[in-house]
Amino acid sequence: MRAAVFDSGVGGLTVVKSLIEHKLFEEIIYFGDTARVPYGIKDKNTIIRYSLEALEFFKNFDPDILITACNSVSAHALEELRSNASFPVVGVIEPGVIAAKRRLKPTDQILIIGTNATISSGRYEKLLRFHGFDNLVSKPTPLFVPLVEEEILDGQIVEATMKHYFGSMKPDGVILGCTHFPLLQNALKNYFGPQTILIHSGEAICDYLEKELGIGSTNQEPDLKLFASENPEKLKRIANNWLRYPC
Amino acid sequence: MRAAVFDSGVGGLTVVKSLIEHKLFEEIIYFGDTARVPYGIKDKNTIIRYSLEALEFFKNFDPDILITACNSVSAHALEELRSNASFPVVGVIEPGVIAAKRRLKPTDQILIIGTNATISSGRYEKLLRFHGFDNLVSKPTPLFVPLVEEEILDGQIVEATMKHYFGSMKPDGVILGCTHFPLLQNALKNYFGPQTILIHSGEAICDYLEKELGIGSTNQEPDLKLFASENPEKLKRIANNWLRYPC
């Protein structure tokens, strides 16, 4: 099977990492819209327009499934992608919520963090409520994106930023509602303490593909092809560093 | 006279503010490429492509001059804009350097801060050296952009970020090489102390227009028209808050 993975930039490689580890596909076609990144500060209509353009690109490869690694895309453009694609389109929000359901109790307090676009959509919140959770706190944490891009993953700035966003909160679970946030996992664990469960989109989507869609392991390393709307060399360089995988 | 002002987003309004105060034009046409902001993390070729698209838009208004408020555009796309426009195109880099020459001594240490795209271009540095300055430190400070966009203009995160970028530096002058940075002026003054001179693009460009190009005051409030590639309402709202001016 051939999976197309769409992201606004390089962050979706955290999802690709999980897909590679779980060996769910023979081939992964990744497209990052690096010329227009980030999406998380943009409007619903702009995100839909960019997503439909990416869909046209993916159609050339005749994929079996399209995975939108980007939470802002998953939150705003999933329906439009689905009605324009002849293959299934899977976002990261439903998988994240199902992972929360597996790992947390209905009374647990869940903190949802993401970009402005993702949080303002209210999609995580709505779906979590539908699944019986009602102790929810949503918090846009847009500064985490440039921190990760600057490779500032711990230290004083990260601590001050977490204090600014979270104060003395002690949630039972945190939904990492942005592809960049898994890279802050250690800092978040240090901040909240070991009892707080972090839900990571990459792991959640693999779980979803396996358990909900019944996609099994191919038992082989997938072939990874990377595309970007600007500077594909940079995307490949970052992928080499992060994934340590041929592409 | 009619001035066109081009910026990657809303930051260029800091330049518009100065243009309004100096009353140099009867009409100001502002375009912010909010659907593709920020430019400072993007490639030279992408910045050139986007700038030439903006130029086509401005041609509809038959402006007398085009001012590129965005430092990343001024650093990378000025020549291409000039060779495709039938009116003068003025960037913010040369005016910033001329302002530095007026206010600082050749032996003074100058710190140049900006986005990755602006700093990596080396344009400020090259032009400052040409004008006899050689005690120069260039520093990309990309985190300042989202801090301003999040309206975090002082406090622990800002202090930790300045400490991260500047340590114990005490420059004689700082070139604020990004339209967002004037909003951090107070925090920068607190950090460096009162003896450090801050060079602000908006003020520098007005000085340049008046003293180098001989443009005089119209003695009237300019007519301001705002355009954006997404969410023009948001641009107008921000302009209303910042400029307190009809648009």
Characterise the protein shown here.
Two copies of one chain form a homodimer. Chain A is α/β, with parallel strands linked by helices and 247 residues long. Chain A is built from twelve helices and nine strands. The first copy, chain A, has helices at 13-22, 44-59, 71-76, 78-84, 93-103, 116-121, 123-130, 144-149, 156-166, 185-192, 201-211, 232-243; strands at residues 2-7, 27-32, 65-68, 89-90, 110-114, 136-140, 173-177, 197-200, 223-228. In chain A, the strands form two sheets. Chain A has a five-stranded parallel β-sheet with strand order 4-3-1-2-9. In chain A, helix 1 links the parallel strand 1 (2-7) and strand 2. In chain A, helix 1 (13-22) packs across helix 11 (201-211), helix 5 (93-103) packs across helix 7 and helix 5 crosses helix 11. The model of chain A has no long low-confidence stretch (mean pLDDT 96). The interface between A and B is medium-sized, with 27 and 27 residues.
